[in-house]
Amino acid sequence: MQEPAITPELIANHGLKPEEYDLILEIIGREPTFTELGIFSAMWNEHCSYKSSKKWLRTLPTDGPQVICGPGENAGIVDIGDGDAVVFKMESHNHPSYIEPYQGAATGVGGILRDVFTMGARPIASMNALSFGEPSHHKTRQLVNGVVEGIGGYGNCFGVPCVGGEVRFHPAYNGNCLVNAFAAGLAKTDGIFYSAASGVGMPVVYLGAKTGRDGVGGATMASAEFDDTIEEKRPTVQVGDPFTEKRLMEATLELMQTGAVISIQDMGAAGLTCSAVEMGDKGGLGVRLDLENVPQREVDMTAYEMMLSESQERMLMVLKPELEAEAKAVFEKWDLDFAIVGETIAEDRFLIMHNGEVKADLPLSKLSSSAPEYDRPWIETPAPEALTDADVPTIDPIDGLKALISSPNYAGKQWVYEQYDTTVMGDTARRPGAGSGIVRVHGTDKQLAFTSDVTPRYVKANPFEGGKQAVAEAYRNLTAVGAKPLATTDNLNFGNPEKPEIMGQFVGAIKGIGEAVAALDVPIVSGNVSLYNETDGQGILPTPTIGAVGLIAADEEPIIGEARDGHIALLIGDTIGHLGQSALLAEVFNREDGDAPTVDLAAEKRNGEFIRANRDLIKACTDLGDGGLALAAFEMAEGAGVGVQIDAGDTPTLFGEDQARYLVACNFDQAEGLMMAAGQAGVTVTTVGKFGGDTVKIGGSEAPLAELSEIFRSSFAAAVA
Amino acid sequence: MKAAVVVFPGSNCDRDLAVAFEQAGCEVSMVWHKDSALPEGVDIVGVPGGFSYGDYLRCGAIAAQSPICKAVVEHTNRGGYAIGVCNGFQILTETGVLPGALLRNAGLKYICRTVDLQVATSNSVFTEGYKAGDVIGVPIAHHDGNYFADAETVAMLEDQDRVAFRYVDNPNGSIADIAGILSENRRVLGMMPHPERAADEGHGGTDGAAVFRALAGLVTAA
Fold first, then answer.
1. Contact call for A424 and B200, based on CB within 8 A
2. What ipTM was assigned to the predicted interfaces of this complex?
3. Maximum distance among all Cα pairs of chain A, rounded to whole angstroms
4. Which residues in chain A are contacts of B139 at CB distance < 8 A?
5. What pTM does this model have?
6. C-alpha span between A264 and A194 (Å, rounded)
7. If you average pLDDT over residues A444-472, what whole number do you get?
């Protein structure tokens, strides 16, 4: 077949800038073939090369005694003692989900699960953080329904419990929804697998599902803004098959037991190209592929299509040749393809053969190491004006609370998480719905807690404080269930990095995240960057989602009790009444002004340690975030089915979003104990009310719990279902 | 008692069911879907939840044709005990071991939550640990759990006291609120809710544990 001639238009269609094409000419000293152009485009797009973000990602703290493997592999790995390790990562599937919500979200879940089990870990928990446009926007309902069904359709069939996540709505996401999928798995510290190839002449084996034409160019698509040609991009979205993924996981984990695996890498973005290059590059080896041996499900596929296909549920492995028969038997048992498609070679070459013809012959190490890297110009986000006293509104407390819980942003999310299997595998100790989810480490007394957090309003107003806040909130959510925060994964969603103000948001947020993860000792061990979340020049709110994992040791009890009649409501931490960028301003007054709250990291650490050390004195605990004391107290009462009375009546005290705070429910004796402990620890503990009765009474205003509960439980579905 | 749990390539509650059997004191073996015989001396077969062969067609339809299912049908024909949970219930109806069919949920959405079940009969090894009328909390997790049978079949199930569990607040449109049914000899139970997810204090409570508790002491003549 005649391959198209290389024209400036073809180069531009591959997302390559003229100067990037010049770099290609310089590297290979000749005009690339069509297949080679495709390979460069796959390796050098933003999604795969991190060319705009690398410089800043390097500044993030990624190390600590608990870290077994930091960023750069398929997922991060953290030691949880006794030879056990938790393997986790969060990754976006934003662009595909907006184009085709069901399949886009489903394959996002599939991709992150593969990242985890590729390393030898059985997935045990998932979460997803979703951002959609305003509920009244004509696309929102379809996107919410499609994305939630897609996540459920894939995860439920695969069989991993969903234990947490977030769902938010804001007009800034009207043209770009965000789908950030998190997965965590369990491995043995001596049973971890990496992607670096080793040994010359070792067989390169293709595993899993067959290759089709779906998803060709997906990673390049995900590295560009949207415009009115979006409908034409549908063929770049892959189609998921969770049943095959389930078999691929079982077969892969079984294969690893045979000792046949030298290295292994899942085929995600940019499929065969990216996985082969990564394995070769990390091992300092070349790779030759013979594409006629690639299992194909469509006829007459070209080298270009095979190298760029993003068909799902596939893996690439370097095999110990003497164990080929054992390895092949495992894949035959699970009725999956197992095909030797190439070998490792000593020269620095990425040699692609198809029916005896050379389709690409490139210096392999240059494909990733010489990828363009940009120090994009950025301007610091100007400090927002703080609210003045005159700017601060007052509101009847119950009216304010009703406004919050009737918004789909703060209403109960049962409609979402009841579509996900939350209890499969038999180890879910705390389901989604309130703060962190908890999963038991099967067969041990240890438990792992999971949360994902970010407040995009804060990040927009003040990227640095907003970045800190995302980490601090994750730290608090883990702490509130009694878990020691271990490490984090970051999923950084931003607009077009070629705009200095967007790049400024990115840089500010990274600096804030870096400072917070260092102070709170929760290193970033994996992550993903999604840029160009813009449509017709309108960017999203900067949304650096932080996924975090905490450990409840075998001899520790989690804090998962409920508030009861007669319990005292205690507030841990200091209250100033910061209303800038608050949920109350946004939801009730339609205002997004003022500065984000300042995050005092020393106070976060002090107060967090106080909660964990005094867990015996705490029946129930929640962190304070959006909606401040009023929303936290309501949610704690609503979850327990008991009324609550909060003494304060002024708007800043009730709805202010000061950080480093928790609400605790406990009995009288415990409250006394906490007060005494607080004095020694230098922590502020204040009695703010009590639980009991069947009404919610805040200051001078009151409503039946049943009435508020009905609003809280029905508003989400009413808005988007 | 010896229990065998069938493992289809898409089963995902096989381990959960095995754990519940073990906690009840059973000796458990896992049986691969390509096997055509059950292990020697098996008293009860567990057909677990999950997505047997992907269930892209009617749930359980392909599984019902698998080699192991032929052995399961023979086992139940001989009077052997069996429990099918969720996808396992769907498979047992597809094989004809139990009557009726599971349709898409009336609300057309997957539902995962703990629901209240009323124990409809205590007359079976699976329900003798309860009193008829007891209300227990057991998780459901399914897209196709809407039990349907024609009027004669439902009347027969009622007449023969073969409805094991009913939904207190019907979540999926099941006819006569049926959540689980027994075979005519009362030795096969099929149910959509997951008792194995409610058999452990640290995970979903223990309301479902009694379904397994009586099994340990049982030895069948089959």
1. no
2. 0.95
3. 83
4. 423
5. 0.96
6. 6
7. 98
